[in-house]
Amino acid sequence: MRQQLIEEWNRRHASSKAEQAKLVELPGDADQQRSQLLGALQSGSAGYDVVNLDITWIPEFAESGLIRPMPEDETVDRDFINRVLRTTVWKGRAYGRPFNTDVGLLYYRPDLLKAAGIQPSRQPTRNWDWGHLNASIKTLALSPGRSDDQAGWTTQLKLYEGLTANTVEAFASVGVQLADEDGTYTASEADLKKGLDELLERAHHERILASAVSSDETSSLADFAAGRVAFLRHWPYVYGALRTLLPPDAYSVNRLPGSSVLGGQNLAVTTDSPRAGNARDLIEFLTSQESEQCLLDAGFAATRASAYNGKSRPCWPRVAAALRPGGGTPPATGAPSSAPPAQAGEGGARDQGAEARAAFTWTLSAALKEAVQRPRTPYYGAFTQVLQSHVHELLTAESPDSDKAAARLHPALRDAFQGK
After folding, report:
1. I need a labelling partner for 375 at 20 to 30 A (CA). Which of 8, 57, 74, 245 fits?
2. Domain boundaries in the chain?
3. What is the pLDDT at residue 331?
4. How far is CA 52 from CA 67, 150, 241, 332, 333, in A?
């Protein structure tokens, strides 16, 4: 998708060799990419003008002087979703523009719920909370057809960033904030115990799949598709991925009860770029209404409100054509269509249809407008490693003790937020 957008930019600037852009993809996982990028920019050896940064990296790269603040006199397009736009800001200055975003959602299996006598509702209500979800999980547990390898729900509690996202969601749902906007640690030991108790409640063995403590995005999705759980906390791209795994009536999506955490990536101009003006133009193109509509159509979560309310300009025609499977013309996500749903051949995919896509788009938009950020700190790498190690130890303990865990976690987090 990103390569197609870069090629569209290059076509539109074919007469200017100086404005031709090249996409450089770094190998490795997110932590390895971050380390490579930091090293390259700090050494001055990189020829990068624009960098695509995880939203949690913005404070670190800004504090290190590796990316430029956006011009203060530049008018910010109010079409960007406000909470998503705020991920570009550090200490009152914007350091980029949101490229693609992410947010936790709750997927569910209507077929499994109906078999247990539960009638699922597609549209979430404002008072939808974990109490309602737990009631459904309890009913599922009493279903006579339930097998020993089934559970109510699953998520990503492996020792990696997915665990941080789930932990921050649990903390935020009970009003626990770990740091302020400037990265100063603000939580107390009592706050930590409150948040850890909420996470333990969600991860209770009677509710969650036992393998959740070792699950990442791939394995948790596989468990959901195999029918081992009726509910799954996951990211927006799963909605498209499920087309190839399940029949259209076997899955749906709702907002996550309580708080949901933001993910995604922002585009920023490097401090050493000799082409800062052209770099900002490229960012403006890549985050335009047309480009964001392309991203949404391709399964990403767009960063602009217009992509969700039907007021966006359509995806660049040649990009849409390049991404079109089999020569068909897929409607924009959430847009009505008179065409019948695509039928699956061997190994093919079946679309849920316009009404379901519109419901997904509405749910995604609503979730993004209410989502919370992970802590904003230049020491995010240290913070997330400390949080993950302590929380995973608690979740895998034979007799979890949140009092002792909070007592150990409190000084460790305080030091991490101070860069110690």
Report:
1. 74
2. 2-101+262-352
3. 39
4. 11, 39, 24, 25, 24
pLDDT band, very low/low/confident/very high, at 46 (cuts 50, 70, 90) = confident
φ/ψ region of 119 (left if φ > 0, alpha if ψ in -120 to 50, else beta) reads beta
Structural tokens at position 22: 């090249």
Q: Which residues contact 344 (CB under 8 A, 6 or more apart)?
A: 350
Whole-angstrom Cα Rg for the chain: 22
Q: Is domain 2-101+262-352 in CATH 3.40.50.300, yes or no? A: no
User: pTM (2 decimals)?
Assistant: 0.91
For residue 389, CA distances in Å to 161, 386, 395, 419 come to: 11, 5, 10, 17
Dist. CA 187–CA 419, nearest whole Å:
16
**Up-side HSE of residue 267: CA atoms within 13 Å toward CB?**
21
**Start-to-end Cα distance in the chain:** 39
The model's pLDDT over 221-257, given as tens digits with 9 standing for 90+, comes to: 999 999 999 999 999 999 999 999 999 999 999 999 9
Main-chain dihedrals φ then ψ at residue 130, nearest 5 degrees = -70, -20
Task: Check residue 140 and report its DSSP letter.
Answer: H
Long-range CB contacts (within 8 A, 24+) of 320-327: 320/294, 322/4, 323/1, 323/4, 323/294, 323/297, 323/298
- pLDDT, tens digit, for every residue of 104-128? 999 999 999 998 888 876 555 556 7
Helices (H), 203-348: 217-225, 237-241, 276-286, 289-297, 306-309, 317-323
CB 271 within 8 A of CB 64: no
Which three-class secondary structure state does DSSP give residue 89? Answer: strand
Asked if 196 and 406 count as a contact pair (C-beta separation under 8 A), the reply is: yes
What is the DSSP-derived secondary structure letter of residue 349? -
For residue 233, the Cα-to-chain-centroid distance in whole angstroms is: 11
Name residue 62's beta-bridge partners: none
Cβ proximity of 394 and 405 under 8 Å: yes
Which of 224, 240, 229, 234 minimizes the C-alpha distance to 254? 234
Q: CA-to-CA distance for 170 and 233, rounded, in angstroms?
A: 12
Token pair for 93: 């200055």
Q: Which two tokens stand for residue 290?
A: 């047309």
> Strand order of the sheet with strand 262-269?
50-54, 262-269, 97-103
What are 150's two structure tokens?
Answer: 């089934």
